[in-house]
Structure formats: structure tokens, C-alpha cells
Specification:
heterodimer, A: 95 residues, mainly alpha, 3 helices, 0% strand, B: 212 residues, Four Helix Bundle (Hemerythrin (Met), subunit A), 6 helices
């Protein structure tokens, strides 16, 4: 029987290591606010690779995807509400 | 019995799907658990960008990068082991799961070395914490987040090591087959999630402030 790893898993692993190298090198370039944007974008791509290939979400149906995204959906709501408070608090000082 | 479904399921496939769905429900609570910590970090970092950049420069980026590579590779081994367990090659999967568990242990050892360096550099909040310059208080906040987030993450890694070791031993005994392998898949999901959380912690802890 064939015990070799599937190609998608090997490619994802190599891609993840390459992205790790890219994100460390990018962090040392003076890009101003884009350092943070680059770091979080690359982290999100890595997370999507892990979720899609390693966690096999690409082979799963809608129900499993809905359950997998539920936590991230509510986290997005929490971040949105928290920052709409902190970002505007100084605009409306107490009387 | 592994070869027959529990009485509430029609077949093993439905039981397998239910197990995975249950794991995703648990992982959703974990997303919000780590998400709350990361939200607090984002609020304070947007309030004190210079202090957080100055503090992040004091983290050990070499150890952090090696640890990220270790976790990514261990996740690769686990993903490979899951595909083997599905085709009935549980005994080879056991070797890969064992290797992943050993990588988890080396992650924790490196993390411990890192904590030791930070203790020696007086970066542990409330334990002889010293941070020169105008950013002392925001650096304190950064390192409070650092130790809570990485500490809680390390606890998850430790639990994952035990889970992988138990699954590896069962796989070695031939418990899993092409028909029954749900525990391998579900344990794999947990391990990959611990890896996924680390990817974000790495970007937030080690990378800020490196270019200035």
C-alpha cells in the first residue's frame, strides 16, 4: 500500500515554511504601517492553508464549514463592536 | 465497538461526521477564548503603538521562528498520519503521530528556554520587571499579554502532546482502520488548531518593531 504523503499536504507544508520566511524578512523592511498589514495578511494566508488542507475543510460540506466559521464570525462581531467604541470614544467626551 | 456505530448513529460515517462537528463546536469556543486575548492586545497596541513596538523588539525572534517551523512541521506529520489512518495504515501513522508529539515537546523546551532568557532580562511583569525609557508601562502591558497568551497556548500544546501520544499508542495496537478512524481525525483537528493560533501569536508577538 502507498504510504507517501498526498501532494497537497507536502505543498502546503513547504508553502507554510516559505511564508514563515517571507513574513520574517518582511518584518525587517521599513514599510511603516504596512509592516503590520503584511504580517497579518501572511498570517491569515497561513491560517487558511492550515484550515483548508491540513484540517481538510476543502473536502467538507456546508454544515461543517458553517460550524468552522461560526467562532470566527462572532469574533469579528466582537472586534468590530470593541473598536467602534475605542475608535470613537474621544470624539464624544462625557459632558 | 470500533467496527460498529454507537446505537444513536445510522452508520460509522454519520458517527464520524458528528465527532468532527463536535470538535469544530469546541474549536469555536477556543477561537473566542484566544480571540478575546488578541482583541485586548489590539486595543492596547492601537493605544500605545510605540511602546508595543519597543517591547516586541525584546522578544526572541530566532527561537520564535524555529518554534513556528517546528509546529508547522508537526502539523504536516499529523495531516499525513490522518491520511494514512484513513487507508488503514495505522501503524505507520503511529510513528508520524509520535514524531509530532516529540516536536511538541521540543516546542515546549524551547519556550522554556525563552522564558528563562526573559526572566534574566527582567521582562516578566511583577517579577523584577525593568524596562528602561519612556515605554515602561506599555511594555509591561505587552509582556503581560505575552506571558498569558503564550502560557495558555503552551498549556494547549501540552494537552495536545498527551492526546497525540495516546492516539499514537492506540494506532500502534491497530485500533484504527479504514472504517474506523474518527479519533485520529478529531485529534488532528485539535493539533492543527493549536498550530493556527500560534501563527497569529507569532505575527503579533515577534514581528512588530523589527524595522525601526
Amino acid at each position: 500500500m502507498n504510504w507517501y504523503p498526498p501532494r497537497a499536504i507536502v505543498l502546503s507544508w513547504l508553502g507554510l515554511l516559505a511564508l514563515l520566511g517571507i513574513t520574517v524578512l518582511t518584518a525587517y523592511q521599513p514599510l511603516g504601517p504596512f509592516n503590520t498589514v503584511a504580517a497579518l495578511t501572511i498570517a491569515t494566508i497561513k491560517a487558511l492553508l492550515i484550515a483548508a488542507v491540513f484540517m481538510e475543510l476543502r473536502d467538507r460540506g456546508g454544515l461543517m464549514l458553517a460550524f468552522a466559521s461560526a467562532g470566527f464570525f462572532w469574533l469579528a462581531v466582537m472586534v468590530w463592536l470593541a473598536f467602534s467604541d475605542y475608535a470613537t470614544r474621544t470624539n464624544f467626551p462625557p459632558p | 465497538m470500533p467496527d460498529a456505530p454507537a446505537f444513536q448513529f445510522v452508520d460509522l460515517r454519520q458517527q464520524h461526521d458528528a465527532a468532527q462537528l463536535g470538535m469544530w463546536v469546541f474549536l469555536a469556543t477556543e477561537v473566542l477564548f484566544f480571540g478575546g486575548l488578541i482583541l485586548a492586545y489590539c486595543v492596547y497596541r492601537s493605544a500605545y503603538p510605540d511602546g508595543f513596538a519597543a517591547a516586541a523588539r525584546h522578544t526572541q525572534i530566532l527561537i520564535g521562528t524555529i518554534n513556528t517551523a517546528i509546529l508547522l512541521t508537526s502539523s504536516f506529520f499529523v495531516a499525513w498520519a490522518v491520511t494514512l489512518a484513513k487507508t488503514g495504515l495505522g501503524r505507520i501513522a503511529a510513528i508520524l503521530l509520535g514524531a509530532a508529539a516529540i516536536m511538541g515537546i521540543s516546542f515546549l523546551v524551547l519556550k522554556g528556554i525563552e522564558y528563562r532568557i526573559e526572566y534574566d532580562e527582567h521582562l516578566v511583569p511583577d517579577f523584577f520587571f525593568v524596562f528602561e525609557g519612556p515605554n515602561g508601562r506599555s511594555a509591561w502591558l505587552f509582556f503581560a499579554f505575552y506571558f498569558v497568551a503564550t502560557g495558555v497556548h503552551a498549556l494547549h500544546v501540552a494537552i495536545g502532546i498527551v492526546v497525540l501520544a495516546v492516539i499514537a499508542m492506540k494506532a500502534r495496537r491497530g485500533t484504527y482502520s479504514a472504517r474506523y478512524h474518527a479519533p485520529v481525525t478529531v485529534a488532528g483537528l485539535y493539533w492543527h488548531f493549536v498550530d493556527l493560533v500560534w501563527v497569529f501569536l507569532f505575527a503579533l508577538i515577534y514581528l512588530p518593531g523589527r524595522s525601526t
